[in-house]
UniProtKB/TrEMBL annotation:
Residues 1-96, 153-182 are annotated as: Disordered. Residues 60-70 have a biased composition (Acidic residues). This is 28 kDa heat- and acid-stable phospho, partial. Residues 1-14 have a biased composition (Basic residues). Residues 86-163 form the Casein kinase substrate phosphoprotein PP28 domain. InterPro entries: Casein_kinase_sb_PP28, HAP28. Residues 25-36, 153-166 have a biased composition (Basic and acidic residues).
């Protein structure tokens, strides 16, 4: 049978490979463009710097904390080419270990909250059930009372038959008919 899939489908096309020299030339051209853009934006600055690294303002002699706040992470993929204006998008900020507050209560996810609520509801129900306040517990207690009454009546009948047997020496009428049927 013929293979109907697309495996091996690009046989007639010419494949183009980029040489390492061309790649190096492209990277150098990008660096030059980035440096020119920095010169235009800042009116000067570090001439041999990497465009992905943050620029340090030479006029400010403050602590490194402020420099860390100005630092923007390197954008991945197409993010560097497209400006995204999504008001719902939350920018992720990296925090230092000294800035993290461990003592704050941790916010639970919806599933975790629902699971905890379910467990608490089950515990409340079991307490009410053991106290006999739920409908199911009331029904169980009523059934138990009926069974106890039936067992008491059965025990009384056995005792009466035993007394009758002991006093007459012969088995009771009900017992005699049972033994004959066997």
């Amino acid at each position: 049978m013929p293979n109907r899939g697309r495996k091996g489908g690009h046989k007639g096309r010419v494949r183009q490979y980029t040489s390492p020299e061309e790649i190096d030339a492209q990277i150098k051209a990008e660096h030059e463009r980035a440096q020119e853009a920095e010169l235009e934006e800042g009116g000067g600055g570090a001439a041999g710097g990497d465009p992905t690294k943050p620029k340090k303002d030479q006029s400010s002699d403050e602590s490194d904390d402020e420099d860390d706040e100005d630092y923007q992470q390197k954008r991945k993929g197409v993010e560097g080419l497209i400006d995204i204006e999504n008001p719902n998008r939350v920018a992720q900020t990296a925090k230092k270990v000294t800035q993290v507050d461990v003592e704050l209560p941790k916010e639970l996810s919806r599933r975790e909250r629902e699971e905890i609520e379910k467990q608490k509801a089950k515990e409340r129900y079991m307490k009410m059930h053991l106290a006999g306040k739920t409908d199911q517990a009331k029904a169980d207690l009523a059934r138990l009372a009926i069974i106890r009454k039936q067992r008491e009546e059965a025990a009384k009948k056995k005792e009466e038959e035993k007394k009758l047997k002991d006093s007459t020496g012969a088995p009771a009428k009900g017992m005699q008919s049972l033994s004959l049927n066997k």
